[in-house]
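Summary of Year 1 activities. Much of the first year was spent building the evaluation harness for sequence design. The harness presents a backbone, in tokenized form, and records the residue chosen at every position. We chose the following record to illustrate the format because it has been used consistently in internal testing since the harness was completed.
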């Protein structure tokens, strides 16, 4: 969906939203997760109220209101609604940024999703951590479950897992001590999968563990991969492989030399909004946009709201939602009239 500007030859602005949501477990919800039930206090309960159907609707409403007010922007706005973000974006934005249709849009700047802020402030994300999914595989001696079999795959795997989890504790301590300010400043590592064995009385010849690792853009990815090799090579017969690996981890610079950030911040300052800038702790479609050297900000105009994306009873208050539309109106008028560079 496009709103053509008065100077359509200028680099345009992308307002991106993904349309997919994560699964629900209805037995844990107080109301139907797809009913959009509004409580007396204005809370709207439903999957996607924070992540991120809210933002998609706010884009549309903000543009509708500006058009009704007779506003014209110099730059063209493109509203994009893409699939598959929740499963990595591999069949969505990752493909789209290499498509001729994307190139024809002539994108100069993009807005995408952020997270709610539990305080009166609003959080803006200028980069995000690289998601790595790593499988560690161990091969060892099999045998009967009644014997003390030496050099088993599971023993080797456990010792390597301990090295991974020791690093996890180190990073967690950095956050808890305050040495690292936010979750986006540290590397999170979680053991998410364990596989091995065929039946109870057989010591398996193979066993594997899966890890979800999120690495800040301040970390040298080449050196971190070498560290994975050190941990796994400490045991004979243990190797690792990537199930998913994101390597181009660019950040959007936030200073006055970035005219897009300057325009965005000016619009927020005019509304007396308090902004907090962070590295996004998870992964969004923004990483594929930044990979093309296009500056992008992750921003959901949601404050005074607990972060409940992917959680049971996800909700957004009606008043917060409506205010977010107004926030976007100001932002779009500002970034949509950034002069030619």
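For this record, the design step produced the sequence shown next.
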């Amino acid at each position: 969906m496009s709103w053509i500007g008065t100077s359509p030859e200028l680099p345009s602005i992308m307002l991106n939203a993904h349309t997919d949501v994560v699964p629900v477990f209805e037995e844990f919800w107080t109301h139907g997760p797809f009913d959009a039930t509004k409580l007396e206090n204005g809370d709207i309960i439903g999957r996607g109220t924070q992540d991120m159907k809210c933002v998609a609707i706010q884009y549309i409403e903000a543009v509708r209101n500006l058009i009704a007010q007779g506003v014209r922007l110099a730059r063209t706005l493109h509203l994009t609604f893409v699939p598959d973000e929740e499963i990595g974006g591999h069949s969505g934005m990752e493909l789209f940024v290499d498509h001729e249709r994307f190139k024809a849009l002539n994108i100069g700047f993009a807005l995408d999703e952020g997270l709610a802020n539990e305080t009166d402030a609003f959080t803006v994300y200028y980069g995000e951590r690289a998601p790595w999914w790593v499988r560690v595989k161990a091969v060892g001696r099999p045998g009967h479950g009644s014997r003390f079999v030496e050099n088993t795959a599971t023993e080797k795997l456990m010792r390597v897992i301990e090295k991974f989890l020791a690093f996890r504790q180190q990073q967690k301590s950095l956050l808890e001590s305050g040495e690292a300010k936010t979750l986006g400043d540290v590397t999170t590592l979680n053991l998410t999968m364990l596989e091995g064995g065929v039946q109870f009385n057989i010591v398996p010849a193979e066993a594997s563990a899966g890890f979800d690792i999120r690495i800040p853009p301040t970390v040298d990815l080449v050196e971190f991969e070498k560290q994975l090799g050190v941990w796994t090579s400490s045991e004979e017969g243990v190797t690792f492989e990537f199930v998913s690996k994101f390597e181009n981890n660019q950040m959007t610079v936030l200073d006055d030399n970035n005219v897009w950030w300057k325009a965005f911040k000016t619009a927020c300052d005019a509304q007396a909004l308090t902004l907090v800038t962070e590295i996004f702790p998870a992964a969004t479609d923004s990483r594929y946009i930044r990979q093309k050297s296009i500056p992008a900000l992750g921003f959901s105009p949601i404050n005074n709201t607990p972060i409940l994306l992917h959680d049971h009873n996800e909700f957004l208050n009606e008043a917060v939602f409506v205010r977010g539309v107004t926030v976007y109106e100001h932002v779009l008028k500002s970034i949509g009239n950034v002069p030619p560079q």
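The chain has a mean pLDDT of 97. Quantitative recovery figures across the full test set are reported in Table 2.
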